[in-house]
Specification:
about 400 residues; 4-stranded antiparallel beta sheet; alpha+beta; elongated
């Protein structure tokens, strides 16, 4: 009897190996088109009484669509398990550690609403994945209503009938205005890398900014993907996160964290930098580098770039009157909380930019532009020049307020 069992097992193993060999020769994974259709099967739904909602009918998912069918199956199992707070699940023995971790990161990259799991897993040779939760289901049942309420408050300021650019821009502004870059008690906490940190505690690191921006975009019916890599600033390179988004069938890169670039310069003025809203991949790559192995998608459109859409892209030398017109056209929309005005101008070439920096500031043309603007004093302008992106930023403080240092 034992010999029969041995023979049967050997036959099954041989059959499996033959099948695997045939698959290896004839099966080629199909990389599906980016943002093609909703990816979660109908059998997988959110229990809205427990977990947070996203507009699954409207948005499309980035990471899932880059996987082959076997990887998608593992993705769906992990996704279900995280919604149910399973401690571990069987996925497959055919993946190695890096492949399983990549699929797990893909789930989190597609679903910023999943804030209760740490970014760590363990994978056994028997095909089981073990999760590390930062919250229990019972804790999340108390946190979810707070997130929902805060989300409702923020989204009330978004006109869902506006075009995709306007919806996205408003959410970019809301995240910058309502989240502060800060770590819990000065130490890194995974909470700071999630929507919980941003929406419950109004503080986050770059991952929290990006996931919150992505989450709110999904509620506005807009598709986006969480991106990780490295960014260089002031000569230092650090790990960073940002977002790739789809607007009007084109792809753009946006860094919602660096929308707060001027907070240290003009503290508490509600100042937002638009230099990192809807960039091409080439421009984002000036100081942002994708992690190795992360899928890369070409982004060449400038149609919904902030400076193009707002008429703040300068392609010729401006006379004082033309510059004044640029300021006047944007002054009401660019009013800040303190009554001041922030205007950013992007120049199309280093030559135009260098000339503008010289003539605008050194030759006093800026003074002539702001001299007659209501509520702004002649001598209360603060400016900065971005030599990397050819952007000049001008802050005009309200009447009666001195120069900012």
């Amino acid at each position: 009897m034992k010999n029969f069992i041995k023979s049967a097992v050997s036959s099954l193993l041989l059959a499996f190996l033959v099948f695997a060999l045939v698959c290896a020769v004839f099966y080629k994974p199909q990389i599906k088109s980016f943002f093609s259709k909703p990816i979660i099967p109908e059998s997988v739904t959110y229990d809205n009484s427990q977990r947070l909602e996203t507009s699954q009918e409207d948005i499309e998912y980035f990471y899932y669509e880059t996987l082959d069918s076997q990887e998608q199956s593992a993705y769906e199992k992990i996704y279900r398990a995280l919604l149910e707070f399973d401690e571990d699940i069987y996925v497959s023995t055919s993946f190695d550690d890096n492949e399983v971790f990549s699929i797990f990161c893909g789930v989190l990259g597609d679903h910023p609403e999943i804030y209760w799991v740490n970014g760590k897993i363990s994978y056994s040779s028997l095909g089981r994945v073990y999760f590390d939760y930062i919250h229990t289901k019972e804790e999340c049942d108390k946190i979810d209503p707070i997130i929902r309420e805060r989300t409702k408050e923020l989204m009330s300021g978004v006109n869902l009938d506006a075009d995709e650019y306007e919806r996205s821009l408003k959410i970019y502004e809301l995240v910058a205005q309502n989240v502060k870059y800060e770590k819990t008690d000065g130490e890194y906490s995974y909470r700071d890398a999630t929507i919980e940190g941003a929406l419950v505690y109004s503080q986050a690191v770059c991952s929290g900014y990006s996931r919150t921006y992505q989450y709110l975009l999904s509620l506005a019916g807009l598709s986006s993907a969480y991106i990780s890599g490295y960014a260089e600033r002031d000569g230092e390179t650090e790990g960073h996160a940002w977002v790739m988004q789809k607007l009007d069938e084109n792809y753009y890169y946006t860094d919602p964290t660096w929308a707060d670039s001027f907070e240290d310069v003009i503290d508490g003025k509600g100042v937002i930098s638009y230099s990192y809203f809807c960039l091409s991949d080439e421009e984002m790559a000036l100081d942002h580098t994708l992690d190795d192995g992360m899928p890369f998608y070409k982004s060449e459109s400038t149609e919904d770039n902030y400076f193009i859409r707002e008429g703040l892209y300068v392609e010729k030398e401006l006379s004082p009157d033309e510059l004044a017109d640029k300021v006047y056209e944007n002054i009401e929309r660019r009013r800040l909380e303190d009554g001041g005005v922030l205007i950013e101008l992007k120049y199309s070439s280093p030559e135009l930019y260098a000339d503008a920096c010289d003539t605008l500031i050194e030759e006093g043309r800026l003074d002539r532009v702001i001299a007659e603007i209501d509520g702004v004093n002649l001598n209360t302008a603060t400016y900065s020049c971005d030599d990397l992106r050819y952007v000049i930023t001008i802050y005009l403080s309200p009447a009666g307020e001195g120069n900012l240092q």
